[in-house]
Specification:
With 309 residues, this protein is an alpha/beta fold. The chain has twelve helices and eight strands. An eight-stranded mixed β-sheet has the order 1-2-4-3-5-6-7-8, with helices on both faces. Helix 1 crosses helix 12 and helix 2 crosses helix 3. The two termini are 27 Å apart.
Amino acid sequence: MIDTFLQALPHGITLSCRASGPRGRPVLMFLHGFPEAAFVWDELLEHFAKPEHGGYRCVAPNLRGFEQSSAPAEVSAYRPKHLVQDIAALIALETAGGALACLVAHDWGGAVAWNLANQRPELAQRLAIINSPHPGTFLRELQNSPKQQAASAYMNFLIRPDAEQLLSQNDFERMWPFLTNGHGGSAPSWLTEPVKNQYRAVWGPRADGGSGLTGGCNYYRASPLRPPRPEDSAAASVTLPREMLTVGLPTLVVWALDDIALPPELIDGLGDYVTDLTLHTVPGATHWIVHEQPQRVARYLEDFLLSNR
């Protein structure tokens, strides 16, 4: 059973959340990416709330800018320090000032999670990342790899001032390819009409009158980690000191190898930044592995949670 609630944070942001399992149990927190929302984790929330799978309290917030969560108008409000602040505050409320059993994240949620694990490692006992590049390897590839620059070229569309308007046209006809290109353009079996309706509800007009896509586009507008262009140096001008990149938490990384936006070169050298790394690669799976193979993801995560417990 999935419960939904709005959680006001001390710094004025409200996050809409989905959860399974009663409060007071060890907490797993799940962070979604773009163009998704917290609902993508529902199967895993229910799975890990069951006693036979750990009996956790499982919480999946909609990140700021998504679904019913607060969506500040300023692009600067989507910089990493603010996103980390949101999740740190939610962790404090859900754990009564303690630490998560594990922070689980995909895509943009992973970007938040990598930063939180570096800056606030006391807030989680473990970290699990699903197809979300570590900032060190991502910056390396954006600066040096034509393959990654081409794969990430879509980012320079998403920062356009009219991106959300264009993406919303004709029943989001430009959005569906984000979810289908990994299948040669045909709709994957998991993208049923009910699931498409869940996406439409997230992408459509917000209660405050804005577009449901503006918050997600603002993540790209606020970040310089995108392919450089003649008129925009972007990643080419970024330097990240090593102390901002190291992660000491036990970390699980699950990487679907058919991700067309995030090729497997992004996991090369990951061990240089993560001292305690468990890595699983999945041939034949795409960026949307949480939709495609939720039970495989759950199995990897369950094994990881049980290791050295």
